[in-house]
Amino acid sequence: LRSLVWTELESALSELPPEQREIFELTELDDIPVKDISKTTGIPVNTLLSRKHYAVLHLRKRLAGLYQDILQ
């Protein structure tokens, strides 16, 4: 089950624009605070948060079917 979830997550992440994928991976998988990413990249915090928001929306939509399958 864990392997299936990771495979689906990787597939869904690959569908994202690079900017959205990068901020999601850095904050959620690498556990780097948005403020630190902003300082390193020079990209405003609000821009990074917006990118992450759109990434999360896509991932929720894309993985909703998998979630339903797991519950059944």
From TrEMBL:
<dbReference type="GO" id="GO:0006352">
    <property type="term" value="P:DNA-templated transcription initiation"/>
</dbReference>
<dbReference type="GO" id="GO:0016987">
    <property type="term" value="F:sigma factor activity"/>
</dbReference>
<dbReference type="GO" id="GO:0003677">
    <property type="term" value="F:DNA binding"/>
</dbReference>
<dbReference type="InterPro" id="IPR036388">
    <property type="entry name" value="WH-like_DNA-bd_sf"/>
</dbReference>
<feature type="domain" description="RNA polymerase sigma factor 70 region 4 type 2">
    <location>
        <begin position="8"/>
        <end position="58"/>
    </location>
</feature>
<dbReference type="Pfam" id="PF08281">
    <property type="entry name" value="Sigma70_r4_2"/>
</dbReference>
<protein>
    <recommendedName>
        <fullName>RNA polymerase sigma factor 70 region 4 type 2 domain-containing protein</fullName>
    </recommendedName>
</protein>
<dbReference type="InterPro" id="IPR013249">
    <property type="entry name" value="RNA_pol_sigma70_r4_t2"/>
</dbReference>
<dbReference type="InterPro" id="IPR013324">
    <property type="entry name" value="RNA_pol_sigma_r3/r4-like"/>
</dbReference>
